[in-house]
Amino acid sequence: MIPVYEDCALLVIDMQDKLLDTLPADVREQLVKNVGILIDLMKDMEGSVFYTEQNPEKLGGTTPILAEKLKGAIRVEKMSFSCFSDGDFCERVAPHIPQTLIIVGVEAHICVLMTTLDLIQEDEEEEITVFVPIDGTASRKKSNWKNAILQMSNLGVITTNTETLVYQALEEAGTDLFRKYSKLLR
Description:
The protein is globular and about 45 Å long. α2 (25-44) runs parallel beside α8 and α6 (108-122) packs parallel to α7 (142-154). Strands 1, 2, 3, 4, 5, 6 and 7 form a seven-stranded parallel sheet that branches. It contains nine helices and seven strands. It is of the alpha/beta class. The protein starts with 7 loop residues before the first strand and ends with a helix. The chain has one domain: Isochorismatase-like (Rossmann fold), CATH 3.40.50.850.
């Protein structure tokens, strides 16, 4: 299945340094790069971008490189693990979730998984298609990440990867956007 980019949004969950620092360095680096690419892609496709920060008073804000890219996006501070257990998120973001939602962030087996499970439960009409790029999520332990991806996949979430999402959005080579993203994906 291909995302409907004309009616698509990106939800970035808890990409904060204190959480990212618990990941292996290579995983962290690739995760931040991929999330940054997807933020850029969503802006180029004129989609919405939402992001959350888990307890920012204790955990700090979004990592600076992504915070810069997220300027103008809707930000929600939360204490709950699931975004859908947060009243501010339910009021400011949930009503604006389009037909296609791409979810990225940390930790895959906690906030990403719980948010995805709640979204599936809330979407009784099955109007929203959820995509989770496996290289756009991470957990401290690889086994927890694998388990989260398996659970989401078993519930109908489309598990994919950043490069596939980019090329599905671009649809063809030879364009300015193709040149931009083919360099970023190297």
